[in-house]
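Typical record is below.
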Amino acid sequence: MSLSLDEKEIMRIVAAVTTLHGTAVVSRLSAAALWGMPRLGAPPKRVHVTDSRITQTVQNAFTVKHAGSLGPAEVAERFGVLVTTPTRTALDIALTASFRQSVVVLDHCLRSGLVTKDGLRRDLERQPTARGSARAARAIDFADHRANRPGESLSRVVMLEARIEAPELQAPFDGPDSQHADVDFFWPGLGLVGEFDGMTKYRDSGRWSGLKPHEVVIAEKVREDWIRADPAVRGFVRWTWHDVVASGRLAALLSAAMRPRLR
């Protein structure tokens, strides 16, 4: 059986760390990979660790060692190596990564119960002068456990950047035949439903739903039809990863969908 990209990344991290001395702890985006936190783009070329025995960053072709101290409560073991805990990992990412990457990780961690906002804020308050603390606080405040997938999290950030009105997340709708659906995004004042379509919904349909790809397409069409028939809904817009990452594309799609429409 061939390994997934995530599994290969985990093996690479573990192999690199086993060549280091015992005080090195996998951290930042490398720790995120070990905890199954989502990543935007390709994995880092080097494995990131935190080492309490050094006073400045040291790197070679395989690893980046960051100076820093970690308390016993901030270190765990995973896949046989030392790694920062989920809370410390998420906070490190919020302090050092982009706002987009931070929100994607924080949304995931809140949704899966790996961290709490109170825990993140408490730990951030312990290092008020840390570089990136203002951005980290903003990312923690913006993070929302209701974002179901990385594509939804990134969509939220793109909307914020484009100054698009913040939607309700996972708004519930009931159909005429006892159907129920939580839509990704809903703007009640506009009656607009927004749905992010990740390709895994169709490519890996057998794994998550037991349906074949064409059956998923049919089920999605039926679901959309009865949601559109709801009196509160006056518009429906879908987008994909391409729309989210292409500069200005999601903003243009939403702006067009939000233009005043006659009932």
Q: What stands out?
A: The CA atoms of residues 113 and 145 lie 9 Å apart. The chain is about 45% helix and 20% strand. The beta strands are 24-26, 47-51, 58-59, 63-67, 75-78, 81-84, 168-174, 180-187, 192-196, 235-239. The longest helix spans residues 213-228.
